């Protein structure tokens, strides 16, 4: 089991540079990758995202890369034809306008259009080699951090699940008593209706058919059985990877079953137990929101 919260750090250092990578993650419904990169590594954005996605399936993951070291010098390009034309034009203006002062190199350098300064474009493979050791280390630490937190969450889920089983066992122990009480209540109501309405001629078969129908509406055996099945599946799914969504769905099913059971039971005793069961299911769901 893996949590969605964690932190990791990796460093790659040599005589030329120090590269530090920080990776942290928090809860998110889907996988959301946020990168904070130096200008030097902008070209690697998609490659980094794909690499992260190979290791993680859910969570908001932020990767920050810091680069300290020597920056490659900019490349300088000279447009020689433009420079020659500029010199000829300046000499022409000097002559036409009658300037006595000689045209100097400093005057010429005030016009910079013939010079272009560009960053050297590094090869993507070379840039990847620089950041990979630190990035891989940071993601490994992040993964281990999430797994440790996941094991802690698993123990909490097991505890809540055992508490749920105990509460459902209480309902199971009350089942026969509640069914018998509801049967007696139903019988009294029917007798009262027959007396109040002065019904004498009643088709016996039809009467018992309706009675069985109503008694079945009070029987919550199926809901109890399905709840126990959900508990069994919950324990199995806890052993799987990337199980957060499945566990959350199972909690929704548990909630639906206990609601139906409560409505069928028609019992104040069971209603009190159901309140505690719903509380425990909510506790399960709160913890599951942290699971990848």
Short descriptors:
6 strands; 62% helix; two-stranded antiparallel sheet; 3 domains; elongated; 292 residues; alpha+beta; Ribosomal Protein S5, domain 2
Explained architecture:
- This protein is α+β, with helices and mostly antiparallel strands.
- It folds into 3 domains: 6-71 and 123-147, Ribosomal Protein S5, domain 2 (2-Layer Sandwich), CATH 3.30.230; 75-118, no CATH class; 149-288, no CATH class.
- The protein is built from 8 helices and 6 strands, in the order βββαββααβααααα.
- The protein has helices spanning 45-55, 80-97, 105-109, 124-196, 204-218, 221-237, 244-265, 268-288, and strands spanning 6-13, 17-26, 31-36, 59-69, 75-78, 115-118.
- The chain has a 4-stranded mixed β-sheet with strand order 1-2-4-3, with helices on one face.
- The longest helix has 73 residues, at 124-196.
- 20% of the residues are buried.
């Amino acid at each position: 089991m893996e949590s969605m919260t964690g932190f990791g750090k990796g460093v790659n250092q040599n005589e030329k540079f120090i590269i530090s990578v920080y990776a942290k993650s928090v809860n998110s419904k889907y996988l959301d990758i946020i990168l904070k990169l130096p200008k030097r590594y902008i070209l690697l954005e998609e490659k980094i995202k794909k690499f992260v996605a190979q290791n993680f399936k859910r969570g908001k993951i932020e990767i920050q890369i810091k680069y300290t070291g020597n920056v490659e010098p900019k490349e300088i390009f000279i447009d020689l034809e433009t420079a020659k034309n500029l010199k000829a034009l300046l000499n022409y203006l000097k002559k036409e306008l009658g300037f006595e002062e000689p045209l100097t190199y400093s005057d010429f350098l005030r016009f910079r259009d013939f010079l272009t300064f560009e960053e050297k474009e590094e090869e993507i493979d070379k840039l990847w080699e620089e950041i990979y050791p630190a990035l891989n280390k940071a993601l490994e630490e992040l993964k281990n951090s999430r797994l440790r937190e996941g094991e802690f969450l698993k123990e909490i889920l097991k505890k809540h699940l055992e508490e749920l089983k105990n509460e459902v066992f209480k309902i199971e122990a009350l089942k026969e008593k509640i069914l018998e009480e509801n049967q007696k209540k139903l019988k009294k109501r029917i007798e009262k209706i027959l007396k109040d309405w002065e019904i004498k001629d009643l088709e016996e078969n039809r009467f018992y058919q309706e009675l069985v129908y109503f008694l079945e509406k009070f029987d919550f055996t199926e809901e109890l059985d399905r709840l126990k099945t959900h508990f069994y599946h919950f324990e199995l799914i806890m052993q799987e990877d990337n199980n957060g969504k499945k566990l959350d769905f199972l909690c929704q099913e548990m909630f639906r079953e206990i609601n139906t059971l409560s409505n069928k039971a028609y019992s104040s005793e069971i209603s009190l137990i159901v309140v505690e069961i719903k509380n425990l299911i909510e506790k399960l769901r709160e913890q599951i929101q942290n699971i990848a």
